[in-house]
Design a protein that fits this description.
Distance between the termini: 36 Å
Number of strands: 32
Helix content: under 10%
CATH class of one domain: Mainly Beta
Strand content: 25-35%
Low-confidence stretches: 1-52, 507-515
Strand order of the largest sheet: 3-19-16-17-15-18-4
CATH topology of one domain: Jelly Rolls
CATH architecture of one domain: Sandwich
């Protein structure tokens, strides 16, 4: 193989994105995203006895989860190691460019908000009269006010403009798409957020929690600055991976733990791997043959943790992302045929995980996957039933907020998006569910379900904070009504809640990943 320029032979090609959101406010329409597909609900939480994965012997420093350095919880899929994974047969095809592991244009910077940082108002992109797309509320916002904005924020230079701000005080990861500084004004195409101490992936209710195609913050799985030269033999988390069209599946666009996929995936993909899939190298893969030590560390990680498919790119068999500013570079001295061939070795050996015997969390404890995630959101169009003013959905609170008022306000939401439409988190007929009100200031929550004929199938009645209503999901459910009632006179009140499966955990559920 003859040497050639870095720019023409080895580059991170851009992730696929259309021009921008074009759907009306209140509808699920985000750039390059699709809310359809199939998957198995495998949520990683709880403990049980299992064998730990092999080769966990490296001495690793203690980690504090849910922080800037180690975002998300120990039970996050990012920190899970599969036990005895079984891999599929489909091999990632070659494409226009070589595979790569890199920071840069299509990766992200990660910035820590301090208590002394000022607030910043983010405005829509120039020419976008709709506003900033908020996929959790499924509506456009005129502005987004971030309470603490670090002075060193620099979005990725590509058109995606990724940047994640971690605010430990708020416990939030702010994740931006198409962020840019325009003549001193910050502007963005989309804003989403994730709990800093959460799973690092969405759930049925809060399904979109970041700027990547699968609904995760861009920081998820990224190789961090402090990890590149930490002296360890592998990274202590799964990696973030993008694939191109000929590897990604059209038939099944996403699976757990993804809650979304690229918008035209079903019509343009030609491969077999869904977004959200976990990719791994087989245990027999001989990493000692890899001479590039940075790539060897990546390969060792892919043998233990694997990498989740979080996005799609144009023309690169796989991209694994490193944090911008990390100085991660597989070819610091220019094009290297040996490293390029070793990347192709990794590509040829990577496979989708289709089943496992168990899981081990970030603390080394065995866990049983949990299926009981919240499937209720209070997003959507609210209408007054009694008095005013209308309460509004607050994405950070995941609740409707009523201002202090002297009257009792009642409002209703008939949106079909209040109940999860995520493929692996839809309600199942005949399954017991538990509705729990999460309210403050005297607010109350109510849920009613109907069939197509308008016959009421279930009504929880008004539930005050902490109250629980249990019921079996009706077989002919077709419509929903969610009610919110303001609280005590003269007091700001909030109305929220969770709706989770109350079925017993299946001891085998979560041990198998669907192809």
């Amino acid at each position: 193989m003859t040497s050639t320029s870095l720019s023409s032979r080895f580059r991170m090609s851009r992730p696929s994105r259309p021009a921008g959101p074009t759907g009306p406010a209140g509808r699920s329409h985000r750039p390059a995203r699709l809310f359809a597909g199939t998957a198995l609900a495998l949520v990683l939480c709880g403990t049980a006895g299992m064998l730990a994965p092999q080769a966990r012997a490296q001495t690793t420093p203690a980690r504090v989860f849910g922080t800037y350095d180690t975002p998300f919880a120990a039970f996050s899929p990012w920190y899970m190691q599969p036990v005895a994974p079984v891999l599929g047969d489909f091999s990632i095809p070659t494409s226009n460019y070589y595979p790569t592991v890199a920071e840069g244009t299509w990766s992200t910077g990660v910035f820590k908000a301090l208590s002394s940082d000022p607030s910043v108002t983010v405005y829509p992109l120039v020419g976008n009269t709709s506003g900033i797309w908020d996929p959790d509320a499924e509506s456009y916002r005129a502005t987004v006010v971030i309470p603490r904005w670090p002075a060193n924020v620099v979005p990725a230079s590509g058109s995606d403009g990724h940047a994640d701000i971690i605010d430990e005080g708020m416990g939030i990861v702010h994740s931006f798409f198409q962020l840019r500084l325009d003549n001193g004004t910050w502007r963005a195409g989309q804003y989403a957020w994730a709990p800093l101490a959460g799973r690092g992936f969405g759930e049925g209710g809060h399904y979109y929690q970041g700027a990547r195609a699968v609904g995760v913050p861009a920081i998820g799985g990224v190789i961090r600055k402090a990890e590149v030269d930490d002296g360890l033999g592998w990274y202590q988390h799964a990696l973030a991976v993008s694939l191109t069209y000929n590897a990604l599946s059209a038939a099944t666009t996403y699976i757990y733990p993804a809650t979304s996929a690229d918008s035209n995936a079903a019509t343009t993909n030609t491969g077999s791997i869904p977004q959200g899939a976990l990719l791994m190298l087989p245990s027999t893969f001989d990493t000692s043959t890899i001479t590039n030590l940075k790539l060897r560390k990546v390969a060792e990680t892919l043998k233990r943790y694997g990498g989740y498919v979080v996005d799609r790119n144009y023309g690169t068999p796989f991209v694994i992302y490193a944090e911008n500013g990390s100085n991660f570079n597989l070819m610091p001295n220019g094009w290297d045929n040996t490293t390029a061939n070793e990347l192709q070795m990794v590509r040829a050996a990577l496979r989708q995980v289709v089943s496992v015997s168990g899981w081990v969390d970030g603390n080394g404890a065995s866990i049983v996957p949990e299926q009981r995630l919240n499937i209720l959101s209070l997003r959507g169009q609210w209408s007054l039933q009694r008095s005013s003013p209308l309460g509004s959905f607050d994405t950070w609170k995941q609740a409707v907020v009523f201002p202090a008022t002297a009257v009792d306000v009642a409002q209703v939401n008939y949106s079909t998006r209040t109940i999860s439409t995520v493929a692996w988190a839809k309600p199942v007929a005949g399954t017991p569910y538990k509705l729990t009100a999460r309210c403050s200031g005297g607010g109350r929550l109510r849920l009613a379900l109907y069939n197509n004929s308008g016959t009421k199938l279930y009504d929880s009645g008004e539930l005050a904070d902490g109250a629980v209503a249990s019921f079996n999901w009706p077989a002919d459910y077709a419509r929903v009504a969610v009610y919110a009632y303001s609280g005590n006179a003269g007091t700001v009140s909030t109305v929220g809640g969770t709706l989770v499966s109350d079925a017993p955990l299946n001891a085998l559920s979560g041990k198998t990943l669907m192809k």
